[in-house]
Amino acid sequence: MKRDSASTKNLRVLVLSRAYPNNVTELMGLWVQGVVRQCARFCEVKVISPVAWCPPVPGMPENYARHRRVLRRQMDGPVEVFHPRFLLGPGYSTHNFEWLLYYGAIRGMVQRLRRDFPFDLIHAHFTYPDGVVAAQLGRRYGVPVVVTEQNPWGPWLNKYPKVRDRSIWAARQSARHIAISRSVRSTIEHFAGKLGNLAVIPDGVDGSEFSLPADQSGRIPDQIVFAGAIRPVKGVDILLRAMRVLADAGRRVNLVLVGEAFFGTYRQEELRLRQMVIDLNLQERVRFAGKQPLPELVRYMQRSAALILPSRAESLGMVLVEALACGTPVVATRCGGPEDIVTENVGVLVPPEDPAALARGIEQVLDHPGDYDPATLRAHALRNFGLESVGDRMREVYLEALAHPHGEESQATAVAGGAVAG
Asked: Which of 214, 303, 307, 385 has the least CB density, counted as fewest CB within 10 Å?
């Protein structure tokens, strides 16, 4: 039976998420922001989103130096967001104990915050390190913890057994552990076994921001768009090779790549892709639009004939939902999350790592625009992934966590090596 929203009107929730938009990286963690904003409709929420500390050293690369410009506190509508700094080593050098650095950086802030904001529940996005830190704080303050896992638990966990053990511990400690797709759930179960506290709730799309264009005639019939972080897992190199296949077949298709390379390793990928464009002689067909504000991202989706997501792996693929909410059909790879989103009525799924198959999928969508009614695409997105629907499900999860606060592993001794001294 659905509970009345009044049951949560006095609920206070503390959110932990390294991925959350700020004044420097406005699009990073939009999916988390959407859920937070929706939850703020029925409870009081504050967010702690730590940022890597960058010393004021001359000559520091911009992708690191820009962290210094992140505001330490900002308001996101009614939600107060804090961005404390914490120390991180280069690459994965501190990965095994990143949770401890994170915990140490925010512990005092949480203690001070609790004086005026006695939170009833902690909601972390990502199991590691955020969920591990949330579980420690939950034990310290005696409040239930909800963890939303945004990433698949892939084979990489085997490289970091300490991270794996702490992630499993946090999953079992949480009152509710949420996977954003069936694919993510299966990866969690592969490592942690069947968990009675594990459920699937996707991230949500804001239909007021991602909307149908005022004039459908404004779409550019030969333009396709990719939107996302420029990094190897996104498979943009496969998309470029598909563009070469289309060009060789005499198809005039133009590709716009919207997105930035957040980190140094991603920037190397962007440089490689730019060189690929030259090597494949696609300079007149491919444009790097770079980082764009949200209204411009929406405009690209609204004006393009299709959005393409050629990823090697995706936990969900919210950009697909965002495009569908704009009435734009999609082409994606069968790489995990997209299978929860894309049906034959809204787009095409193709195998990953296959430029020819991707090119055929793009052709199929471009050649049959009448098969994809924009209003139908939008209805599919909002019915299954709309923020209101996701928010209602999250409210139920919060109430269940409050009623049954103990996770799968309620004993004080834990795989992770016990609690940190308060």
From this structure: 214
CA angle, corner 230, sides to 228 and 235, nearest 5?
90
* Residue position matching structure tokens 């990719």: 226
CB 310 within 8 Å of CB 242 = yes
CA distance 110 to 108: 5
Evaluate whether 2 touches 109 at the Cβ level (below 8 Å).
no
- For 49-174, list the strands marked E by DSSP: 51-52, 73-76, 79-82, 85-86, 121-125, 145-149
Q: Return d(Cα 209, Cα 186) in angstroms, integer.
A: 31
Q: Which residue has the tokens 């239930």?
A: 144
Non-local (6+) Cβ contacts of 220 within 8 A are 254, 303, 304, 305
Q: What is the pLDDT of residues 186-226, one digit of tens each?
A: 999 999 999 999 999 999 999 999 999 998 888 999 999 99
Tens of pLDDT, residue by residue over 322-376, are: 999 999 999 999 999 999 999 999 999 999 999 999 999 999 999 999 999 999 9
Tell me which residue has tokens 């030969």: 222
